[in-house]
Structure formats: structure tokens, C-alpha cells
Amino acid sequence: MRIYKVGxxxxxxxxxxxxxxxxxxxxxxxxxxxxxxxxxxxxADFPVFLHPKSGEEYALARTERKSGRGxxxxxFHASPEVTLEEDLIRRDLTINAMAEDDQQNLTDPYxxxxxxxxxxxxxVSPAFAEDPLRVLRVARFAARYATLGxxxxxxTLALMHQLSESGELEALTPERxxxxxxxxxxxxxxxxxVEVLRACGALKVLMPEVDALFGVPQPPAHxxxxxxxxxxxxxxxxxxxxxxxxxxxxxxxxxxxxxxxxPEDEWPRHIAHEFKGLKLIxxxxxxxxxxxxxxxxxxxxAEYHTHGxxxxxxxxxxxxxxxxxFDIYRRPQRFEEFIAACEMDARGRxxxxxxxxxxxxxxxxxxxxxxxxxxxxxxxxxxxxxxLGEEIKRERLKALKAYKxxxxx
Length: 409
Hints:
Blueprint: E1 2-6, H1 8-15, E2 23-27, H2 31-36, E3 40-41, E4 48-50, E5 57-60, E6 62-66, E7 74-78, H3 84-89, E8 99-100, E9 106-107, H4 112-118, E10 120-121, H5 133-145, E11 151-152, H6 154-166, H7 174-185, H8 190-199, H9 203-206, H10 208-211, H11 228-241, H12 246-254, H13 273-287, H14 292-309, H15 316-325, H16 332-347, H17 359-371, H18 376-380, H19 385-407
Parallel strand pairs: 2-5, 10-11
Antiparallel strand pairs: 1-2, 1-8, 3-4, 4-5, 6-7, 8-9
Helix pairs in contact: 5-7, 5-8, 8-11, 11-12, 11-16, 12-14, 12-16, 13-14, 14-16, 15-19, 16-17, 17-19
């Protein structure tokens, strides 16, 4: 039995990055031997065990063979005869196909260290094209390591293009796709994820609504970058730069989908794009079974982001409707995330990345004014039921009028 540290832990150590998760491969062992040493089995499809003390995952060396469509369409074979090199060749990228023993002696049969130094994301073998999930994974690694200068090798991009055209991407489950998408959006350069998917043709398969934004012009007075797709990538980049949570990043990606529906003879204006985009966002949310908090914020940001930009001009009654739409009294965090998404949208424009966004503090102040209306005195005056609701609304409107007057002096 020989045990090796493999994959990401080896890659990140060589890159000088912090190592968080460690994966281990066991060569020359049987399931019975692992159980005898106290390891606990957890793998449903192939033998994976948890270490009796550390709880880390140890997998028996295995080979795989394509047996069906999609990410799960593989038959695995694990036995003591499977070599380390045979196990490593089934991995996606050369930089993930290295192993080291307990003395940090490197096993690198597919030149992963060389590709690390060349800053290349390169597939290990032609078998790469058998697993559609790898298209998303490579794009995610490109987003993670873009700041270090990594790019996708041309021959790997060609295989990703082949996968995109094969129909295999449609075989991915919503859950697996969302897991990769959500992780990619939380990387340092999430816009690179979208760029790589677009470069290999996967974006028009997985998210045609986003792909349709490229080549659609916007008014240059508001959007010096002009192209709606380029703007979306810049907004996403700003969201990452400002350490926004996943909910905000997802909303940033989808906020302008309605512009992809504008007839060409109406370009560069996009009348009512806020509402036109809602059905597209619902379709994307459904396609990937997106978590509810991400779904809700994406829809609200799309519908109301232009209200956010015009906050200082809004009538008190319109401002109150906006606040009510976000349920700021029970869901204050959601309104904060809306403000953040609006600010990222304002900054995601060529040459305007450092612009101030006074609307943010104005909206926060408006929310505070509306929340300051106390319900108890109204109850004591005898208001109840629908009448109470109307009186609360009147008092909140009064508070917002006073707030607007005070801030416009």
C-alpha cells in the first residue's frame, strides 16, 4: 500500500498558495485492507474512505471508462493493480494530475509542473472530451488563476468547443452545473469564467440569454463601453473586486438580460428592458435550480435597478413602493444587496469604475426613515386590520416626504 497526496493540494503548494482541502490516493490496496485499518467507506460509485482520525478522503487508485452520457456516464474500476500513472491520466488538467509522497517527492507523468510554470490550463488526455462537466471546471480554473496569468491551452479550448457542440452539455444535471457556476462566480475574476465559456461555445448552450447580450449596443452617454455583454462582464468584475456575496454576483450577471430581446431597429435604446428580462431570468433560475435567495434578488435587481440609479429623483410614493417591494422591514439584508448590485452596475462602465454612488446612502436613509414609523401608537389610536395597514402606509409616506425635503436642502 502506497499513499500519495494528489490534485489541488499539490498544485497549490507548487504555486505557493494556501492548501485547504487535501485529497489522497491509495495505490496497491483493497477495500478489505482499508476497512481493516479503520477507514470508513463513503463512496457510492467507487471506493472512497474517510481517515479514522483526520476525516480526510482517501480514494483507491482507479481507472474509468465512458459508458453513457453526461457527468455520471462512467464505469469505474479500482483494484490493487491500478498504477498511480493510470489513476492520474483520468484527471482533467495536467496541473491537477500530479502526486507527491510523504517526502514531497513529485510524480508528474503528464508535465503538470511545466504547465504551471507556463501558466497553461491543458488537458491530460483525449479522454477529457468524455466529461462535459470539465468545460465548466476549466472555465472556473481560468477564473481562479487569471490573476496569475493562466490561460486555456488552444488544444484544450478546441476540445471544449467539441464538447459544446456534441450535445453532452445538455446531459449535465442542474445541481452539478450550479455547483460549478456558483463556485466560479465566487472566484477573483468571475468574468473570465463567462469569457471562456463564450470562447468555446458553451455559453450559448448553457446560458443563451447571457450569450445574446454580446454585440448588443447601449447608449454611449450612459455606457461608454457600448456593448451590453462587455458591460455585464465589467459589472461582474466589480462585484468580485468589492467582495460581494453570491446573491449579488448572480444578480449582476443577469440584471440586463432584457436588453437581449430589444429589436435591432430600436438599438441602442432598451425601453422596458427591466420587465422584459424577468421571464428570461426565471428560465435561467429554473434551468439550474438556483437557490431561492439568488433567484429572488436577481429578479428584484433586474426589475428595479434603474429605480436605484434614479433614487434621488424618485417621488416619495415611488420610493415607498420600492421599499415595500423589498420587504425592508423583515428582509433588510436583501435591500442592502440590491443597493450593492446597483452600485456595481453603475461602476461596471468603461472609465467610470471609481465613480461615487450617492444613491446608496440615500436609499439606506430612506429605508431608515420608513422603518422609523412606530406601529404601537397607531394601535393605541384604535387602528386595526386593513385600516391599520393604510395608516402605516400614510405615516411611512409622510416620513419619506420629510426625508426627501431634508436631504434636498
